[in-house]
Design a protein that fits this description.
Blueprint: E1 6-7, H1 9-16, H2 20-28, E2 39-41, E3 44-48, H3 49-73
C-alpha cells in the first residue's frame, strides 16, 4: 500500500517563500494562480506533493512560454500611453 504524502501550510510557505498569512489571504480570495488549491484533512489544509509539483511545473512552462513570446513582441515599438507632451501635439506645441 502506497501512502500519499502531503504538504502542510508551513511547508508550502517555505517552498514558495511566502508567509503563512499571505497563503491564507490568497486562499480566502480564491487566487489559485498564486497558490495551488488545497484539500481539507479534517480541519487542516493539505496539499498533495505530486499535485504541488505538477502545479509548479505548469507555472514554470507557462512562464517560459510567456518569456519567449515577449521576446518576439519586444521588437515592435511600444505604444505611448497617457496625455501627449506639448511637442507631440498636432499643432507642434504652439498655443
Amino acid at each position: 500500500m502506497v501512502q500519499k504524502r502531503f504538504y502542510t501550510i508551513q511547508e508550502l510557505s517555505i517552498i514558495f517563500g511566502k508567509t503563512v498569512a499571505s497563503i491564507h489571504g490568497h486562499l480566502a480570495r480564491k487566487q489559485f494562480d498564486a497558490v495551488p488549491p488545497p484539500i481539507k484533512l479534517g480541519r487542516r489544509l493539505a496539499w498533495p506533493v505530486d499535485e504541488v509539483d505538477a502545479w509548479i511545473a505548469d507555472k514554470s512552462t507557462r512562464a517560459n512560454e510567456k518569456a519567449t513570446g515577449q521576446c518576439n513582441s519586444a521588437k515592435q515599438p511600444a505604444k505611448r500611453r497617457g496625455r501627449p507632451r506639448k511637442s507631440e501635439r498636432k499643432n507642434g506645441g504652439e498655443r
